[in-house]
């Protein structure tokens, strides 16, 4: 903006005065006129979220990621490759199903795939994303699932929650016990009866079956909670949907972090 104003002033002056005719006049020219001749610095556009949606008689496809991910070239390349491969698989499967059904005289129902990434929080160093996937391949109903992605901007790669911790330390015990307690409370509400450990969906899911994310609930640039998700069929039947439990990150948990990651977190009181 400043360079534009200087340019206008310089042009106006040129219209009113003749060009300098001597070396002395050239030397007397203000330094600002020399700046006008230099090219302005390019403005880097802010990162924008990405979203694509397609719908045909054969398939329906959607894929998206947030602006925070668009600002990371490595993630853009990764998601773009996955998007293209996912779409190709969708189309191939849909064509095979359609041709088979039409050959056998059955109706064909368009296949569908959706994959969306959402920001769960970010600090100066870390970016936490949740992925949500939905797929329908012509059956009685579609299926959905979740995933987590924790990106270290300094290392320029994905890391796990375990990578945040000092050697020999773990958050599993601090998370699993309160998660199981809160999960049963929620299951009792949905089922309107006590949870029976011997039932098909009575036990607390295994750790490897869960999606675990670090979350910044107040969006102040420091992670303060852990979000644990049990997808459909993990903690209950299809009709119950998924379960999402949010747990505080306590001071004890932060003490187990590697020093370089502690500034990305802030403590909250434990679950009562």
Task: Briefly characterize the structure.
With 272 residues, this protein is α+β, with helices and mostly antiparallel strands.
Structure description:
This is DUF4163 domain-containing protein. It holds the Pfam family PdaC. The chain is of the alpha+beta class and about 270 residues long. It has 8 helices and 9 strands. It has helices spanning about 1-15, 25-30, 30-35, 65-70, 75-105, 160-165, 170-190, 250-255; strands at about 50-55, 60-65, 110-120, 125-135, 145-150, 155-160, 210-215, 225-230, 245-250. A 6-stranded mixed sheet has the order 1-2-3-4-5-6. The protein has a 3-stranded antiparallel sheet with strand order 7-8-9, with helices on one face. A hairpin with a 6-residue loop joins β4 and β5. The longest helix is centred in the first third of the chain and has 32 residues, at about 75-105. The radius of gyration is 28 Å and the shape is flat.
């Amino acid at each position: 903006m400043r360079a534009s104003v200087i340019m206008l002033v310089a042009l106006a002056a040129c219209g009113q005065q003749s060009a300098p005719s001597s070396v002395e006049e050239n030397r007397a020219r203000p330094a600002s006129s020399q700046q006008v001749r230099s090219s302005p610095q390019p403005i880097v556009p802010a990162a924008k979220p990405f979203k694509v949606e397609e719908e045909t008689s054969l398939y329906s496809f959607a894929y998206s990621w947030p602006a925070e991910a668009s600002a990371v070239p490595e993630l853009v390349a990764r998601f773009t490759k996955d998007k293209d491969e996912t779409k190709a698989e969708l189309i191939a499967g849909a064509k095979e199903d359609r041709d088979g059904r039409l050959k056998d005289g059955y109706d064909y129902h368009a296949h569908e795939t959706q994959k969306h990434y959402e920001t769960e929080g970010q600090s100066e160093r870390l970016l936490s994303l949740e992925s949500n996937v939905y797929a329908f391949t012509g059956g009685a109903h579609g299926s959905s699932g979740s995933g987590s992605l924790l990106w270290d901007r300094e290392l320029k790669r994905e890391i796990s929650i375990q990578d945040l911790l000092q050697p020999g330390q773990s958050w599993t015990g601090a998370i699993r016990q309160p998660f199981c307690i809160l999960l049963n409370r929620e299951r009792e509400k949905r089922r309107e009866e006590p949870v029976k450990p011997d039932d098909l969906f009575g036990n607390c899911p295994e750790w490897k079956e869960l999606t675990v994310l670090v979350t910044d609930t107040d969006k102040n640039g420091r992670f303060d909670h852990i979000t644990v998700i049990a997808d459909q069929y993990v903690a209950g039947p299809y009709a119950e949907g998924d379960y999402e439990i949010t747990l505080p990150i306590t001071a004890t948990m932060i003490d187990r972090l590697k020093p370089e990651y502690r500034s990305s977190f802030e403590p909250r009181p434990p679950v009562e």
